[in-house]
C-alpha cells in the first residue's frame, strides 16, 4: 500500500503523535471531535492550534454543539486567537426540533491533506488518565498518504454543512479501484446507513471469524440478525464490552438485554475487566480491519454522523487481531447457562432501559 498506517491503543501515544503532526503542519490543520474539553489536554492542544493560526495556516475546529455547549467560552477564545471554529447543529430553543437529535459523533483530523486520524478518542484528560475504576481503552488509526484526503473530504463536507462555506483550492485524491482503504461515512439526515450495511456485509462474507469491540451492544434488528446468522453457520463471532459505563449504567443495562439472543445463536460476549473499553473496531478473517467512531447501538446507526476506515489487507487485519487478542486476555466471557439464571430484577432493568435505548 502507498498509505502508511499506524494504530494507537493509548491516548498518550496518539496525542503525542498528533501534537507532532500539528507542529510540523505547513498548510492547514482541520480538527473535528465530538467532545473537545478545555482541561489541561484541551488547553495544550488549543495552544498548538493558536500557534499554527498565528503562523498563517488555515486552522479549523469543529465540535458537536450539544455535548460541548458548556465550553463555548473556550471556543470563543480560540476564535479570537485566529482559529476558525464551528459547532455542529446548535439546539433550537425553547423547544428542540426533531433533527436536533441528530448529532455528529465523528472524530476526524486532517493535516495538510497528507495525514489524517479517526477512531474513538475525543480530547479530554480522562482519555489519558482513565477513570477511578480503571484505564480508558480506545483505538485510533492514522493514515499518511493520498488516501488520507478521503478523511479531509469528510471534514470539509461537515464544515460546509455547519458554515455554508465552499472551499476552493484544496486538492482531493480519490483512490483507484485497487485501493485497499475505504472511508465509510453515515448521515442520518440523508438516511445514509452505510455503517449498518458495511457491518452486515462483513458478517455475511465472514467464513472463519468476525470480532467486535464496542462500549455498547444495542444492535438494530438487521445487525443482530446478521450476527446470529453468521454464528449459526459456524463463524466465530465475538463482542468485547466494558463492565460498566463511563457515565451512568443505562447503556450497560440496555446492552445486557440483547446478550441472551446473541449467545443463544452462538455469539460470544466478553467483558473487559481492566477498565472502560471505548474502542470501536472490527476484524474479520485475517482479511479486513475497521477502526471507527461508530458504536454498536441505535444512536450511532440511526441518529449520529459517523466515520470509519476499513483496510482490506491481511497485514493490517493481523495487527487488529493482535490488538483484540490483547484486550481479550484481560476479559472474561459470559457463561450462557449462568446468564439465564440472573436475577429477575436484572431482567426487568434490562427491558426497561431497552425501551429508551434508541436515545442513549
List key phrases describing it.
2 domains, 360 residues, 13 helices, alpha/beta, Endonuclease, Chain A, seven-stranded mixed β-sheet, nine-stranded mixed β-sheet
Brief rundown of the structure:
Helix content is 37%, strand content 24%. The protein has 360 residues and is of the alpha/beta class. It folds into two domains: 4-163, 2-Layer Sandwich (Endonuclease, Chain A), CATH 3.30.870.10; 181-359, Endonuclease, Chain A (2-Layer Sandwich), CATH 3.30.870.10.
Written overview of the protein:
Helix content is 37%, strand content 24%. With 360 residues, the protein is of the alpha/beta class. The protein folds into two domains: 4-163, Endonuclease, Chain A (2-Layer Sandwich); 181-359, Endonuclease, Chain A. Strand 3 (58-64), helix 3 (72-80) and strand 4 form a beta-alpha-beta unit. Helix 6 (194-205) packs parallel to helix 7 (221-232) and helix 8 (250-256) packs across helix 13. The chain is globular, with a radius of gyration of 20 Å. The relative contact order is 0.14.
Amino acid at each position: 500500500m502507498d498509505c502508511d498506517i499506524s494504530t494507537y491503543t493509548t491516548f498518550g501515544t496518539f496525542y503525542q503523535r498528533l501534537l507532532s503532526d500539528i507542529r510540523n503542519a505547513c498548510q492547514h490543520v482541520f480538527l473535528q471531535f465530538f467532545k473537545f474539553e478545555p482541561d489541561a489536554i484541551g488547553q495544550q492542544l488549543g495552544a498548538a492550534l493558536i500557534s499554527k493560526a498565528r503562523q498563517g495556516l488555515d486552522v479549523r475546529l469543529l465540535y458537536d454543539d450539544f455535548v460541548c455547549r458548556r465550553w463555548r467560552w473556550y471556543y470563543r477564545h480560540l476564535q479570537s486567537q485566529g482559529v476558525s471554529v464551528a459547532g455542529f447543529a446548535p439546539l433550537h430553543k425553547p423547544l428542540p426540533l426533531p433533527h436536533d437529535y441528530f448529532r455528529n459523533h465523528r472524530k476526524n483530523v486532517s493535516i495538510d491533506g497528507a495525514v489524517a486520524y479517526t477512531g474513538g478518542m475525543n480530547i479530554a484528560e480522562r482519555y489519558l488518565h482513565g477513570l477511578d475504576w480503571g484505564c480508558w481503552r480506545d483505538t485510533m488509526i492514522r493514515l499518511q498518504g493520498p488516501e488520507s484526503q478521503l478523511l479531509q473530504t469528510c471534514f470539509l463536507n461537515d464544515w460546509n454543512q455547519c458554515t455554508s462555506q465552499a472551499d476552493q483550492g484544496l486538492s482531493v485524491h480519490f483512490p483507484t479501484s485497487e485501493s485497499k482503504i475505504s472511508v465509510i461515512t453515515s448521515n442520518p439526515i440523508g438516511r445514509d446507513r452505510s455503517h449498518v450495511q458495511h457491518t452486515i456485509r462483513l458478517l455475511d462474507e465472514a467464513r472463519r471469524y468476525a470480532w467486535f469491540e464496542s462500549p455498547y451492544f444495542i444492535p438494530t434488528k438487521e445487525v443482530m440478525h446478521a450476527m446470529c446468522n453468521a454464528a449459526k453457520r459456524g463463524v466465530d463471532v465475538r463482542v468485547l464490552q466494558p463492565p460498566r459505563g463511563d457515565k451512568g449504567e443505562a447503556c450497560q443495562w440496555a446492552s445486557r438485554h440483547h446478550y441472551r439472543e446473541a449467545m443463544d445463536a452462538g455469539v460470544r460476549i466478553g467483558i473487559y475487566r481492566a477498565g472502560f473499553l471505548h474502542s470501536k473496531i472490527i476484524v474479520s478473517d485475517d482479511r479486513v480491519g475497521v477502526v471507527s467512531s461508530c458504536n454498536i447501538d441505535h444512536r450511532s446507526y440511526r441518529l449520529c454522523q459517523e466515520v470509519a476506515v476499513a483496510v482490506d489487507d491481511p497485514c493490517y487485519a493481523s495487527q487488529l487481531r493482535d490488538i483484540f487478542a490483547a484486550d481479550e486476555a484481560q476479559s472474561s466471557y459470559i457463561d450462557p447457562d449462568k446468564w439465564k439464571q440472573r436475577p429477575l430484577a436484572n431482567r426487568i432493568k434490562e427491558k426497561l432501559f431497552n425501551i429508551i435505548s434508541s436515545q442513549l
